[in-house]
Amino acid sequence: MKRIIGVDYGEARVGIAASDLLGITAQGLDTLHEKDSSKVVAHLCALAKELNAGEFVVGFPKNMNGTVGERGERTQAFAKQLGEMSGIPVKLWDERLTSSAAHGVLAESGVSGKNRKGAVDKIAAVMILQSYMASL
Predict the structure, then answer these.
(1) Does residue 104 register a pLDDT over 70?
(2) According to CATH, what is the number of the domain 3-135?
(3) pLDDT higher than 70, residue 103
(4) What residues contact residue 51 under an 8 Å CB cut-off, 6+ apart?
(5) What would the mean pLDDT of 53-82 be, rounded to a whole number?
(6) Contact 78, 68 (CB under 8 A)
(7) Taking a C-beta distance cutoff of 8 angstroms, is the pair 74, 11 a contact?
């Protein structure tokens, strides 16, 4: 079975998670601090090869009423670029409230606000990927 890579895409930071080999759990891998989407795509393509990934799941930031705003449109463009460059299918997955849930998890774990910033995107990527895998 091929792994799935989960991505919490942001213009300043990108959280990355990957499924285990059985596709049961998601583990946080990294938070990229990169604004250049082509560099992010190159990193994800290399990671997909390394992990033998067969799919990407990118968090899709919809508005609370279900409409797609400016952030959602940028995410769609990023997902399209990722699919074209990697040759691997990319699914967009509703990510509403994952960042606030990730902040909550880190706060409950006692992680200070200063240290939370770097971890929240990786935790959000785990939540996106775990939610997607639970739907399969």
Answers:
(1) no
(2) 3.30.420.140
(3) no
(4) 3, 5, 18
(5) 94
(6) no
(7) yes
